[in-house]
Design goal:
alpha/beta; TIM Barrel; 10 helices; 8-stranded parallel β-sheet; homodimer; 296 residues; disordered C terminus
Chain lengths: 296, 296
């Protein structure tokens, strides 16, 4: 069990781009400041909602250095390092640790529609990263990996690799899976989290979640749900959740990762809500087939 | 229609690794020499059978430079440049062209189990690369991308982006798809190829394929099938194919990309048949759970 237990709201920082597709590094700094101003408990970078799958390795390093230097310990930073190659995940993990990351986020290895790793190799993958970086790891259990991670396997992973102590569950039936994982893993589970824009937050808190990893759209409105629930004020927590659910629902089902960018661009935090081509913008603009690829 | 029409056997070069997981650059040179000695019509590098999904960007560049310098125009080189980001695919394409590539191979953009691009964005993606690199492109139509590319869409792509003139079809029903594509695309289809270790080669040649992209296991045995068929000696071509089909079948269904490595290691071309963790070796060795991750 790690000395510090992280809990609360750990949103994902979006990666802002200029309309040209260039990284907007000034915007990235403002994104982080905005998130800290909104009272987040920590920040996760280079996740899928950061469009990590649209970045080169050099850009990942640029963003890692910039974000960790700019956060400067004001809140703990989680860095996503997944790669199909264990060796490359290990190299990314060492770099993240050296740059000041407090935790690593990892999906199981995957590539495309069908390349997956067997459970033995997944376990070796997490073990190699844990041994190299010596900081806690949060497993991201999401459909994008195309890998079904059973509760017994996740509990085994937590027992055999003690730094694998956090679990961000965002699958169909997250609340039930969190409940089963807490039961199966016991003290090895330092942080059962949910994800997916916090769209199932109330059920997940009821199931025992101690943290959530939403987008960075409005962590200041998600935080009271977690705080009230933690204080035993379940009814007030449910009211606070019901108040924000329409927007979370719209984000989760209509916008995807661009939702936060649209809000931050409207609010003047970033200059453009552009996502990188070939990712589809959430609201295609009529008669502008080129809008989505302006950032080629 | 491009000035030079490529046809014949264009195998994929494997990327050899030491047992430690390091790139084996001397082995890479011997792999290329071996392929050229076996009479290939061209060589494709950085494909999925080259374990491209297990490489860092720096390693891709190292291999690109080394392979193109070592092939040195002895045969045409095809370089795979797929990336979910159009901008990164364009950068890779420009670099490949500048290094001497004669053709680019591209899958449609994909990430993980579910991130896919719409047809409009796929078309823009190929167009942006063609305009930037000005060399022919071969579309890789394979299940790994999780993207269904219809014959009308592929024909549209060939018409609207004339450099997209080659098509490597390796899906269920490849022969039928090649036949339909040749019918729909007409002169815009400069090179209908198959792939998938040439396991459906006879049917695909009958359907009009003019090239094949197998592994590098035995291009010298695949070449006669293509040559005999081209010369109108279909029966002899079928005999030559039947002779090698048991090994192709074993490779396709049991070995995957490691098959070529095992043969090349046995033959002294490379030192080790290792694949990079987390990829599973094709034949797990009893009692050695660590064999597969020796290259962590």
């Amino acid at each position: 069990m790690p000395a510090t237990i992280y809990s609360g709201v750990f949103p994902i920082a979006p990666t802002p781009f200029a309309v040209s597709g260039d990284l907007d590094l000034d915007g990235q700094r403002r994104v982080l400041d905005c998130m800290i101003d909104r009272g987040v408990d920590g920040i996760c970078i280079l996740a899928n909602y950061s469009e990590q799958f649209l970045l080169s390795d050099d850009e990942r390093n640029t963003l890692l250095d910039l974000c960790l230097a700019h956060v400067a310990g004001r809140v703990p930073a989680i860095v996503t390092i997944s790669h199909f190659s264990t060796r490359i995940a290990v190299a990314r993990a060492k770099r993240a640790k050296a740059t000041g990351a407090k935790m690593l986020m990892m999906m199981p290895p995957y590539h495309g529609a069908s390349l997956r790793a067997v459970e033995g190799a997944i376990l070796e993958y997490f073990k190699a990263v844990a041994e190299a970086a010596r900081i806690p790891i949060i497993v991201q259990d999401a459909p994008l990996s195309g890998t079904s991670l059973s509760v017994p396997f996740l509990a085994q992973l937590a027992r055999e690799v003690p730094l694998v102590a956090y679990f961000k569950i965002e699958v169909a039936g997250t609340a039930s899976k969190l409940r089963a994982l807490i039961e199966a893993g016991g003290r090895a589970i330092a942080g059962p989290f949910d994800g997916e824009e916090s769209i199932t937050l109330m059920a997940d808190l009821d199931a025992g979640a101690t943290g959530t990893m939403p987008s960075a759209m409005f962590p200041n409105l998600i935080n009271p749900v977690v705080q009230l629930h933690r204080a035993g004020k379940r009814s007030e927590a449910a009211d606070a959740f019901a108040h924000i659910l329409p927007l979370i629902n719209y984000e989760n089902r209509q916008c995807g990762l661009q939702g936060t960018k649209i809000v931050m661009a409207k609010g003047g935090v970033i200059k453009s809500d552009a996502v990188r081509h070939t990712l589809a913008p959430c609201i295609p603009r009529p008669g502008s087939g080129c809008w989505s690829c302006a950032g080629n």
